[in-house]
Amino acid sequence: MDCIPTSREVDNALDIEVDNLCDAFFNSLYFNTFENECLFESVEMREGVNSVADYSSDIISTGSTGKILVSSVSPSFSIDLRRAKKIKNKLRKNSYRFGNMSLFSSGFSIFSPKPLLSFPFPIDIVGVHNLTGRFINNSILKFLSLGDNFIFNSYSVSKTRIRSDMADFHRRIRLKAEFQHSDSDDMPVFYVPNTTYQPARGPQDLEAYIKATLLKLDSELLLVTKSKPLPSSFLVCLKSLRLALKDEVVILKADKGLGLVLMLRSDCLNIMLTHLWNRNVYIGHDSLPSIPAKFTELRSILFQSGLNSNSEEWKYILQSISTTVNWGRLYFLVKVHKNSVPPPLRPICSQLNTCSYFASKYISKILVPLVKRHIPTYFEDSIYFIEYLTVTKFDKPVVLVAADIENLYPSINIEDCIYRVNLFLLSVNSDGLLNCGLIISLLRFILSNNYFEIGGLFFHQISGVAMGTPCAVMVSVIYVHMLETAAMSTMDANRKPLYLIRFIDDYFGIFLKIEDAHDFFISFNGQSTTIKVPMDELQVSYLDNNTGVNFLDFKIRQLVQEPFLCTTLYSKADFHQYMHFGSKHPRHMKTNFIRSELNRIMLRCSTLSDCILAFERFYNALIKRGYPLSILDSIFQKHHTNCFKISDLDYKGKRLQYITSCLIKKFNRQRLSPRVVYKRKAGSNVNFHDVLSTAIIDCGPSFSSVFHNRDPIIVSYKFNRLGPSILKKLKNFG
What we know:
The chain is of the alpha+beta class.
């Protein structure tokens, strides 16, 4: 039964969502600053506990054994109930203090100009957008400027978990040794990973390496030191943010990775309601459909399409039956780069772990090669775009045009989309290998079952394509392709664009005349009642104005007496929150992203002067993020262009060489297999680089075939990060 929730019901539901967010975030963040073993060996508390509620909410249940389970420490870690109550009573009496701050009164109003806190390292305010209309304490702004990926402290991980990670690593290198000579073409496109499969023992030298790493790990674990608690200034800011989040402020992620946004709760709700009350897009429900009934419907679709229940496709599409399945979750990103007050929101409905998720992935896997092969305007990779602009000469003036389709995903009519995708599939299925009926039936199922929950209320999206479903991009690309093909057919051959490329909803074209460009987009707008390119926002550049057009992260223009188009780096904003040097990320992550960004700048800047300016802006931005000059100077000077010491001609030569090398890597499919990766669940103090070094044994031929004489890449995850913790549940309402 359809229903329309009242504004009060929505407000109450979203208030509950905020409270759940705050409790979950701060309980986890504060509680994990404890030393796991120390906490229950004595009642002496360390920095980190915020209140009795923080502690007691982590106590899940009691059993007949008189033990309690603490979720945020370890699923298998239990303590005596009487001892826990003793600690809890001590907290209630507020008898513990750290520094000059009480456990219960360490926060302050974020709208107060004081206090101004001292942080462990300098912090510049970057990428924090205060849309509350009120003054925000400078210390809070600095704290949020650390970025949503800033790592405070690594989780304290037991030695058992570290050994478990090592066992998983050994399993994966044995798998690689077992299947390294298998032909990749023998691997089915659709397969369900078998996580219980145990590979056979590897070659002798590989097993010797595994034994050596275990011995090295045991010796390193004896030297492990415990993690340090959070600095007092961080704890005060976290406490203050908790108070603000519970009362009147929400923190959202900005679109395009442009930082964090602070908004008043009332403003956020008003903007969000403009989306949810659109009855042409969303319909409210008092409950969600039965998930088992939807799986039954999905089975019926597969059976009617002629699939065998033992086929790889059947198992792939229905593999989520054995896992926990939910309906979608809606969240919003704030478009701070739009010059409007209040800023618009970008709605995204995540379909992860829904009954249609793997059906959507199935469609995406089929459509990707078709799109690459049959849609000439598809923007596959920026390196191909750069290659075209670098080698293509224009002997006479041309008109550069950039355009953006307005609200593409929400504006797609579902029935029209299914119809045009079906036409595309029929046109490319000349060999009859595609099961078009199955693809269209699954697509209809996916687009028609976009249900989601937000703050305890239930909605059904009846129009548009959900951004969070895996096939959304490919379906949208095909749909727009059919529209532009129809528009192109109305134009004479001598008026069609010399070059046309599109990245989902962003167009770049090269025309001979301005009138040709206008006629093309006018014809394009006439192909659908909902998909439009705003003609007043069309970017046009030619020699007389030479302003250039902006397409993705490129600014493109034509210079006088220059046969090649000139490109430079373009950004919608200059307040990106690059990783702060004070974060607990591994050192190689802090340096490698700088090298990658330098390469990106060089590829986009066709002239030396533009490259130097972009390098200088990036250099200054990194200084604001706390990077030492010695590290920056070393990385910038060792960059292969070294643009500060070469001529413009040499720069163009080195840039062309790098473009060529990128293309060779792209085309060369016979590269070495991916390097071995060790994944650790947290950043413990174990020196994994020494533990996993391939130098601990003599490398034999079979060993080298797996490792290629290179040490494994060490990847850490599940860190104590600011952004994901704050936004974990907050994203569900805005």
